[in-house]
Amino acid sequence: MAVYKIKLKHSSSAAEGVFRWCLDSPKDDFSVSDVRIGEKGIRVRGWVLPTDNAQPSVALMCGNVVKPLPFNESRPDVIERVLKEEAEGHDKLLCGFRHSVTFPDSSFSIGVVSRGKYYPLVEGTIEGAFKVLEGKNNWLFLDNDSNQSVEQYTGNVKLSRFEKSKWKSYFKSLIELSALTKIPTCLLIAPSKENVYSDYYPYSEARSTPIKQLQKIVPKSFNFIFPVMQLSRLPERSFRVCDTHWTVHGAREAAIQLTTTLTGYDKRIRETFKDDEYIKRQAFGDLGRKVYPPRSADEDVLASFNYRDVVVYDNQLPNFGRIITMHNEMALFKQKIILFGSSSAYSMFQYISRLFETVIFVHTAGNVDVELINNIRPDYFCMQTNARFVVRAPTTRESVSKYIREKKASMSGEELKPQFIGDTLPEKLTPIIETLKQL
Hints:
Elements lengths: L2 E8 L7 E8 L4 E4 H7 L1 E9 L6 E6 L2 E4 L7 H6 L14 E6 L5 E8 L2 E12 L3 E3 L5 E3 L6 H5 L7 H21 L3 E6 L2 H4 L13 H8 L6 E2 L2 H5 L15 H16 L3 H5 L6 E6 L1 H4 L8 E6 L8 E4 L8 E5 L5 E9 L7 H4 L3 E8 L6 H7 L3 E7 L13 H11 L9 E2 L8 H8 L2
């Protein structure tokens, strides 16, 4: 459920036929859900005292819609406190309006109509909690986020020397860990949608950006995947119009690139998905729900496979600290992989769970828990993060168990969901699930 703020500004101009007025609700900075404001309606209440012989009416203008707000409430408090007169029997007692109103547009005004002319008393806007950048062809992009996505793209935010040093240490530690454990590894960075669909973005990309700086310091011996070119060449759209994340097609390509990097080229990897079937659905996305009215677009949804059918363990924590294990005995490679990923990895589950027999996803946005790798001994371990996160380098000193304990301690009993464990587990998975349960 999306939450919006109503922002109000009182008009400084006088309204003909109006002596005094007040809007009781909504108040400035009022929080309201999308369901209430767009379907159930919110309370609009106030009063207008006319001048002598005037007969103004109240109306709300929202986009191209005009909604009359007729006087329907007696306000003895207004008569007594404002006019200092006896309320009972007063000819202006019915000066209040109280209505439940839905808003079809993000901009509106509440005013009076007097002698055939509309005078706005209050002008308002309905805004999301976060700003959204309007691109070309109705594409939405992230704006005003904590990672300063726009400033990164335009070159006004760069990798600091300190963060560069941390990234170099991160790569060095991963190379050493991979060599020591003899477990192949890679880092997949999900591009920002403006990296792939720059034609729709309202700003020009700078010559030097954090992701470009990072690419220059990646060791040549390290498996680094930043699939801008592959995503831009897909016949299907690789990013969602109203969301920051890639589409199912982008997620499929990312899974293919990751698997090919780790296992080597194998035509069966791409052929695994050749018979997939998709249906179209309206999707709002994480950006579409930040604007009002909420905006959606047609997006493909995989209809012929659901990764939830192969989930054998899920600790059901929200976001960071989430652990999901998938086991699919029909997968192409009879191997297991740990994926230390971010939100972009979730849509990859539909594909990576058909490539590797066992997939253990840990939501850490690229931070690595070495102890977990040593306990599980996967055939591969991979990190995945998003391009806008690279301004802060991840670490190889993450303790997932400590993070989970702290997170559980901060959540109420109602917020905590019970762990999901599959009814029947293959014997070889039992020690892995037991390890994960103890975290």
